[in-house]
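**User:** Once you have settled down, spend some time on the protein underneath, comparing sequence with C-alpha cells, and judge whether sequence predicts the C-alpha cells.
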Amino acid sequence: MNVTRKNNVDNTPRQWAILSQDESSVISSVMQKLTEADAQLTVFGDLHLFEHVTACPVPLSALGKLPSPTEIKNHPQRFEGVVIRVDEKKRIIIRLDSHPIQLRGPVQKLPFRFEMKTSPGYVTFTAQGEPQIAEFVKFHDLIKDKAQSALLLVVDLTQITRLPNLTSAIMGDLIEYLSQRKRKVAIINSLSLGTHFLGSYPNTRFVCHVNQEGEAMDFFQSNPLRILAVEDEETTQLLIATCLTQQYLQPVVASTAEEGIVLAREKQPDLILMDHYLPGLSGIEAVRILREDPLTASIPILMFTSDSEQETVMEAMQLRVDGYLLKPLHPEKFIQRIAKTL
C-alpha cells in the first residue's frame, strides 16, 4: 500500500492519531520524529509489537478531539506502517510501509537471540527481540570476550524491541571497557532506544552512534590508531602495512632505529613495533632510549625478530617491552597480539 504522506509534514512535536490494526481503537500520540523510513512517537494507549497501524496528524484547531477511523484512513497526510519497537515509557517506532518490515498477523513476544559475524577487518554483533537481564549480560560478555582479539566492533541493536531498565548500566560498562582498550565500536540504532539507554555516552574517538553499517565503516576510517613499525626488510614492511591497513589502522614505517625514535617522538603512535636487528642502532638500544624519554616512555612496544634465543628475549623483557613476536609473522596472530597489547 502506498504511503500518501506529504514531504512537508512538520517534524516539530504535535498530536497524531493512530488507528489500531483491528480498527477498534484510535490512540492519541505525540510525534517526536518523522523521516522517510520511520516515525518515532510517544503514545497514550496500548500498541503491540508488529502491529500494523495507520496514523495522521491532528489539526491544531482540533486538538483533544481524535478523528474517526474513516477520517484517519482517508487523511491526505496519513502514513501506514508496522510497530517495530516499544519501550517502557510508551515510546514507539513505526517502520513505514514504503520500507522493509511489513508484518501482519497475530502479535507475539519475540524471544531474544544474538549472533556474531566476522567480516574482513571487523566483527558484527546483532541482537534482536526482548531480552531479560541475564540474557543481555550474555550478549555483553560475548562482545567483551571477542574484543580480546578484535579491534573493530559493530553492535547492531536495530531489531531490539524492548529493553529492561538495567540495560543502560550494562552497556555503559561495555563502552568503558572497550574505550579503555582502544577498541573502536560503532553502535547501530542505539539512540532511537531513548536517552535512558545510551544517550549519556557521546561520540568519541572509540565510540560512535550510527544509523547503518556503512556509517560504521566511515567511523573506522576516521582518526585511526597509529602504529609505528621499525623494520628494515621491505618484504616485512609491506606485510605489516597490509595487515594494519586491513584493520583500519594507520601504519607509519621506519627503516632504522634512529628514524623510528624521531617518528615516535613526533607522531606519538598508539603502539610501536620494533625489530631486534637493525642497521646501525639496534632495536634493543632504541627501546632503551624510548623508555628513558618521558615523551615515549608509556607507549606500548612489541619486539619481533627471527632470534628465539632465551638471552635475546630476556634482554628485551628487562626493558619493559610489552611482548615479543617471532618471524615470520602470521597475519592473524600478529593482529591478535596487537589487539591484546593495546
In short: The chain has three domains: 15-96, 113-221, 226-341.
